[in-house]
């Protein structure tokens, strides 16, 4: 039986920078930090790589977890920090917020880039921004709690 999504994982070239972004700027809590050395057969089996080694952190943000990996081996390919959301793969991480305009202004002042200011979509206000690695982070404020997009997230 599937219960729901436990976490989303992100690979980064700089775990300290990305953890600081999600912890210090967005308010996530570090739940655990771990690593595995090259030659860990069980880790290689799970991630489907040979000779993998990595540092990782699991963060709690509201009702969801974010796992961040920095692989030492094998050497990862560089990410395009401006990868369009139409390209295949995970397109974004959405954060439910209150006072989207205030959050948007706070994050812009802290240096986060956005595609646009928050937009009125009727039942929700939303905007897409980028974390330091270029991953898309959506801010969403549900303003109509009778809308089907509202899932009781308080």
Describe the structure.
- This protein has three helices and nine strands; from the N terminus they run βαβαβββαββββ.
- By secondary structure, the protein is an alpha+beta fold.
- The chain folds into two domains: 67 residues, Roll (2,3-Dihydroxybiphenyl 1,2-Dioxygenase, domain 1), CATH 3.10.180; 76 residues, 2,3-Dihydroxybiphenyl 1,2-Dioxygenase, domain 1 (Roll).
- Strands 5, 6, 7, 8 and 9 form a five-stranded mixed sheet that branches. The protein has a four-stranded mixed sheet with strand order 1-4-3-2, with helices on one face.
- β8 and β9 form a beta hairpin.
- It is globular, with a radius of gyration of 17 Å.
Task: Summarize, please.
With 154 residues, the protein is α+β, with helices and mostly antiparallel strands. It contains three helices and nine strands, in the order βαβαβββαββββ.
Note the main attributes of this structure:
2,3-Dihydroxybiphenyl 1,2-Dioxygenase, domain 1; 154 residues; four-stranded mixed β-sheet; globular; alpha+beta; five-stranded mixed β-sheet
């Amino acid at each position: 039986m599937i219960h729901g999504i436990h976490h989303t994982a992100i690979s980064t070239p700089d775990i300290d920078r990305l953890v600081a972004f999600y912890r210090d700027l967005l308010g996530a809590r570090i739940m655990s930090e771990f690593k595995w050395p090259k030659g860990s057969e069980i880790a290689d089996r799970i991630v489907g790589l040979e000779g993998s080694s990595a540092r990782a952190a699991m963060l709690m943000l509201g009702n969801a977890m974010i796992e961040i990996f920095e692989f030492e081996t094998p050497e990862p390919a560089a990410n395009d920090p401006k990868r369009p959301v139409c390209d295949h793969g995970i397109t974004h991480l959405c954060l439910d917020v209150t006072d989207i305009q205030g959050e948007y202004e706070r994050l812009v002042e802290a240096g986060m880039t956005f595609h646009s200011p928050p937009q009125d979509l009727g039942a929700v206000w939303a905007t897409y921004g980028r974390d330091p690695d270029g991953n898309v982070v959506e801010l969403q404020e549900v303003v109509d709690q009778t809308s089907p997009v509202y899932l009781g997230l308080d």
